[in-house]
Each structure stands twice: as C-alpha cells, then as structure tokens.
Amino acid sequence: MSDQKIAVVTGGSRGIGRDTVLRLAHSGVRSIFTYHSNRADAETVAASLAEAGAPGVALQLDTGEAASFDSFAAQMKGALTTLGVTRFDYLVNNAGTSSNRTLETVTEAEMDELYNVHFKGVMFLTQKLLPLMNDGGRIVNISSGLARFAMPGRIGYGPIKAAVEALSRNMALELAPRRIAVNVVAPGPIATDFSGGMVRDNPEVNRMIAENTALGRAGVPEDVGPVIVGLLSNGFGWVNAQRIEVAGGMHI
Q1: Is residue 252 part of a domain?
Q2: Which CATH number covers residue 153?
Q3: Which one of the listed residues 31, 99, 144, 168 is annotated catalytic?
Q4: Is the N end or the C end of the chain the one with fewer CB atoms within 10 Å?
C-alpha cells in the first residue's frame, strides 16, 4: 500500500477496528477513525498511530444518528486537510452494537437501534462520504457469522447483518462505474468487550464457541484485522461483492 493512502474506519478505538487501524498504519496507511464515547481510548490509539509513523485523526461519531452525518462529513474535510489531502481511499464500516434478545423479548426500540446503527448508518454514512472518496477505492462492511448460522438470543442482530450483506452487493454494483469495490468481512465470535465481553470473559461461552469451531478456539481481533487490511490492498483488487467469513470454521 502507498504511504499516501487514507482510510476511514468507524469504531476504530477498540476491538477489531483498533487492530485494523494499527495494521493499516504499519502498512503506511493513515487513518481517520471514529469513536462513540471513549475519548481516552481514541487518544491512546492515535498515539500508537503516530508512533507507527502514520499519524491519524480521531473523530467522535454515533453511527446510529444519521442526522449527524452532514456535520461529520464537514469534520472529515478538516481531518483530511490535517493529513495533507482532500480525499480518502478506503472506508471500513465497522462500528456496531450488540443485541442478545430472543423473539419473545426483543423490543421495537431495540430493533430500531440495530437498524439505525448497522444498516441505515452504513448506507447513509457511505452516501455522505462518497463525494470525498477517490475513484478506485475500496469499502469493507462488517457483517457477522450470525448472518449464516443461528444462535440463541440473536434474533435481531443476525438478520440485520444479513441485510448488510445484501446492501453490500448492491453497493458494489452501483459503485462499479467509479471502480470502487465493496466486500464484506463476517467475523465469528471474537474475544473483545463487544456484547459486554461475553466471549472474552465468560468461560462457558468461550468453551462452547471453541467446541463448535474447527480450529478449536474463539477468535481475537488479531484474526480479523489482517483480513480487512488485505481486502483493502492491491493484492485483492479483483475481489468484489464477496463475503469472507473469519470464524475459524465455526458451524461448518
């Protein structure tokens, strides 16, 4: 990757997003990354990016608030200027929230939040940022293994992520005239603080995942970040409208 490339990564202050922006930095790619509320974590990541020789910019964003996207796009212009450019090359729609509800317990408000963050947010943030994106760029949207297989308590999350995959295929088709490729990375259960740290901190959940995964363990952010970075690279330039599940062979 060229050291002139710029990535935008939502949810880049922790977990998979953090691993992604750090790996991009070591590839010479500078990042504008977002955080939801934890400014301290974002500043820590920004310091790590500077140490890696690829300074980045942290911006606050709630991807569930589409009404704020015009303002965010304006902030993006300022961030790009700070990095000495006017446009960016890569977009990773990573930010997300979890849901552990069943059909009997899920509420309309919770489904609205999932829709706003994971589907509407991805669609309209991409729409607002496209005028700032270089032709020939690449987009990676984050789905989930739960779009393919079902697990208890995921009645909202899995179907919404399946919708993201359908959205991504349509985006790939519509953005083809600009030579912008759109792909999906679908992680399996990852040991982070996501979903209250359930996979990382609950030994029973972690063991259940390991027992149902061909490679015998739950995933970690370092399993997923390299795949995202790979899909943004020239080496994957002819891969478009595809879904790559990064789950160690869970529920094959």
Answers
A1: no
A2: 3.40.50.720
A3: 144
A4: C
